[in-house]
Amino acid sequence: MVGVPAGSADGARGIDDVVRRLRAIAAGLPPTDGVAVFNRMYLTVTEGVRTGLGGFADPSAVAELDVLFAGRYLLAVDAVAAGRRPPACWRPLFEQRADPEVHPLQFALAGMNAHIQHDLPLAVVDTCRRLGREPEQLEDDYHRINGLLAEVETAVREQLMPGPDVLERLEPMTHRIGAWSVGTAREAAWGSVRLLWGLRGQPSAARACATALDGAVGLLGRALLLPLGLREPATGALTAGTPVAGLLPVARSRPATDGTRAGR
Q: pLDDT tens digits, residue range 154-178?
């Protein structure tokens, strides 16, 4: 398995530090690596948050959330680099990152699934505890982030979706991943925030809830990463075992537009 450069969250003091760490991870991975595909997309989002901080009602809270949120992904990276198992939500991506029968778009969505549906609600709760806020005080800014994320998701799908000559052969994948969206995932994550916050006075119940969430998100990740199982086509243009990732261009970061005020 390809190694992952350490991306420790220890000592991360701001978004600039997070951006540096994400860039370091990107520099140490081959572009077709599944983790690299997600990391490029996540770097784009993080840079958009940094650019748009002034447009939030509570920039300091958004910056704190961004660092705590990123820290959970970076800790998963650290765990794998040290030979330890990452949280269940991240295992599908790290375990299948080199599978040539998994499409790059699947890698991107599986990473978003783990980070949004598991890491985000825990990071929101952590931010509220650290800053002495209620989740409702962060809710408006939480939803302001959706603009950037929708833009990035669209860009990722456009850049990674194959052309019409290959698309027909990947029809099972398009049905599988077409039902997943950032907006739906973030709404579910906010529901988890409310649940976890309501359990803050019951540590055992909160831990059980977080563990169940971790496992459930991991199961969805495995579904998103089911190998395509390509069979040899009549034309011979694409044979079984051909790395699907090699058919597509590498996703590249896109800066947020002037009108975007974003975060995660």
A: 777 777 765 555 555 566 566 666 6
